[in-house]
Amino acid sequence: MSENARENNAKARRQVLACCAGMVLGLGVVHPYSMAVNRLLLGPEGQSIADALWWSGMAFSLHMWPMSAFYAVLGGAFGFGVGLLLERKREIERARRLAESTKVANETLREIVQTVAHFVRNANAAIGGYARWLSKDSSLSHTAQEALCTIQEESQRIERVVDALHAIKDVTVQKENGTADLELMDIRRNIQQHVVMTEIARSGDDSNE
Q1: Are 131 and 92 contained in the same domain?
Q2: Are both 67 and 160 inside the same structural domain?
Q3: Do 137 and 196 belong together in one domain?
Q4: 160 with 116, same domain?
Q5: Taking CA 124 as the corner, what is the angle to CA 122 and CA 127, rounded to the nearest 5 degrees?
Q6: Dmax over Cα atoms in the chain, in whole Å?
Q7: Beta strand ranges found along the chain (DSSP E)
Q8: Digits of tens for pLDDT over the chain (209 positions)?
Q9: Percent of residues in the chain assigned helix, strand, coil, to nearest 5
Q10: Which domain holds residue 88?
């Protein structure tokens, strides 16, 4: 059974329990109480509380079943309404917890991205800078020059990846089968898209020049 089906079953059980509780309340409490109050207010003068309580017991007699049914239905409707309000409150609380979890996940992801990007960028700057400095040496062989050129190109690619890491700052909330779960973004896909877009934009600038 899926998580969505289990949640729906649990919700249905809670709703049935709320209706049953309302029916018991209407049949066993409200109806006898209304009978006692009716006897005290509209009955013959001189009625005592004991007489009213005895009269309230008449609510459970067979000839009062139409009124008993009415109060049971009334109590069930009341319980159903209360159950709906409680379910709504539960959903609001679940949404609040999900929002808090999303916020914490976003903050954690930002810290990780900033830390990783900082160390990678520093190391890449040193590697790229040293490769550019070595490439100015005319005494190097053609093979060494090609290797240095490759290092510089990959250094630029790493720089674009670092920029893509800085662009990833959020998590997505994926809803599957009616249940919401936090799921980190597909970091590889987002980095690839960012790098490709950057390369396309750079190639366009080079062609314009």
Answers
A1: no
A2: no
A3: yes
A4: yes
A5: 115
A6: 123
A7: 172-176, 179-183
A8: 567 788 788 888 888 999 999 999 988 888 888 888 777 777 666 667 777 777 777 777 777 888 888 989 999 999 999 989 998 998 899 888 888 887 887 778 778 777 888 888 888 889 888 888 888 888 888 888 889 899 988 888 888 888 777 766 555 444 444 444 444 555 666 666 766 776 676 666 555 55
A9: 85, 5, 10
A10: 3-96
